[in-house]
From TrEMBL:
The gene is LOC115879469. It comes from the Eukaryota. The keyword Coiled coil applies. It comes from Sitophilus oryzae. This is Uncharacterized protein LOC115879469. InterPro entries: Endo/exonu/phosph_ase_sf.
Length: 432
């Protein structure tokens, strides 16, 4: 379930407003975008054939609210509609808190409405006429109880590695040995790919090959962390009792399993909370936050806020990438004049020593996000430093830097609660 209601009107701290979707697991894969525009409007976009589907969920102000709030809602909805592609299917769902009444109204409302039209109903009809939309549930007859919605008075492509396995000395030694063997078998000809790009690509390919073999997480089904072997054994006994149709024994085992699960979970939570308190006392904020998320099972991401550029909503992924690219280019634009290249007959200098490379690798921080090349610092540290030393000297001699090192991945971190523009984000660059 996705919900958008963090920002409330008039500093309302009761969080009374909020809209969201409940999505089945078999539909989740086709969801390509989820954008929250306010505490009353949210958009879910789905990939479909022959055309994509846009679902807009709204929660209109109730009758006791000012008409200006309802007009503002429809204005915001029109702004969302203008940002969508006209050939795609768009459906607006939710609670409109309006009565359009009985009787057909052009091609907008059918003959099977309910009751007498009110002011909010007039506003809804006017909105549908402007946006060329129809109120579908008024075109076929339903029981009046199913038409009545209100009363007038109402109160988230890169492979992830398990780097923690390198803490095991046996795994680290084995990886180092396999890296050495793989490098020797793939680089018999020293003159092959002697450019900085070629050398780095060979190093990267060898590292990724070994990382895939040793550090790829297992895809087995995740068990509850508090599950014990005794409970698993009881589950197997319960399964056998069900197969043999021993209903009384099955019921007794099932009751025992529930009791033990409850007790095991309680013991696990107590132990984890004590560990979190210990981390907090040590001022280890990173691991403390990680432990809290693990205990509370907070893994779902909030909806992506809408992004505006030059006053226009941007929803298409291609347009979003283009907008961020333009913003980054403007942000890092260099206004200085081009410097004339220096003329020097001898560019040679002292070679980079292997001891210098070893020291640099030693002081590299662990547990940092890798760049787009997916090479972790922990794996680089077990790689033979003489090959990296040769690479750095080739870069120094030729003046050419591998193309991978000239690229970076930007991570956007909001500066405020509801960012609407690129400038409302802080950019963090992930480099090699």
């Amino acid at each position: 379930m996705r919900r958008w209601g963090r920002e409330t009107r008039n500093s309302d701290l009761n969080h009374r407003n909020g809209v969201g979707f409940i999505v089945r697991n078999n539909i989740k894969k086709s969801t390509r975008n989820l954008v929250g525009f306010s505490d009353r409007i949210i958009l879910l976009q789905r990939n479909a054939s022959p055309t994509n589907i846009n679902l807009i969920q709204i929660y209109a102000p109730t009758a006791d609210k000012q008409d200006e709030e309802a007009e503002e809602l429809y204005g915001q909805t029109q702004e969302v509609l203008r940002s969508l592609k006209p050939h795609e299917i768009t459906i607006i769902l939710g609670d409109f808190n309006a009565k359009v009444g009985k009787g057909r109204v052009d091609d907008v409302a059918g003959a099977f409405g309910l009751g007498e039209r009110n002011g909010r109903g007039e506003l809804l009809l006017h909105f549908c006429k402007e946006e060329n939309m129809v109120i579908k549930n008024t075109f076929y007859k339903l029981h009046p109880q199913r038409l009545k919605l209100i009363s007038e008075k109402r109160t988230t492509t890169q492979r992830h590695y398990n780097i923690d396995r390198l803490r095991d000395p046996a795994v680290a030694d084995r990886m180092k040995f396999e890296l050495t063997e793989l490098w020797a078998s793939n680089n018999n000809n020293p003159g092959l790919n002697d450019s900085p790009d070629g050398i780095w690509n060979n190093i990267k390919q060898n590292i990724l090959t070994i990382s895939n073999a040793f550090l790829t997480p297992t895809t087995t089904k995740k068990n509850k962390p508090w599950m014990t072997n005794e409970i698993r054994s009881l589950m197997e006994d319960r399964r056998i009792a069900k197969v043999e149709q021993q209903q009384q024994r099955y019921t007794e085992i099932n009751k025992t399993i529930k009791q033990q699960c409850q007790q095991a979970k309680e013991n696990w939570v107590i132990a984890e909370c004590q560990e979190a308190e210990r981390m907090h006392a040590l001022h280890d904020s990173v691991n403390f936050q990680r432990k809290v998320k693990q205990i509370t099972d907070i893994t779902k991401k909030a909806p992506i806020p809408a992004l505006k550029h030059n006053g226009k909503l941007i929803l298409d992924p291609v347009d979003l990438c283009s907008t961020w690219k333009s913003y980054a280019q403007l942000l890092f634009e260099d206004q200085r004049e081009d410097r004339q290249p220096l003329n020097c007959e001898d560019w040679s200098g002292p070679e980079i020593l292997e001891s210098e490379v070893q020291h640099a690798m030693k002081v590299m921080k662990n547990r940092k996000s890798p760049g787009h090349d997916n090479v972790h610092a922990e794996v680089l540290k077990i790689f033979d430093s003489k090959h990296l030393t040769y690479l750095f000297n080739r870069i120094y001699d030729t003046g050419k830097i591998p193309n991978d090192w000239l690229k970076s991945t930007f991570i956007t971190i909001p500066k405020k609660v509801s960012p609407k523009d690129c400038s409302d984000y802080r950019l963090i660059s992930l480099m090699l």
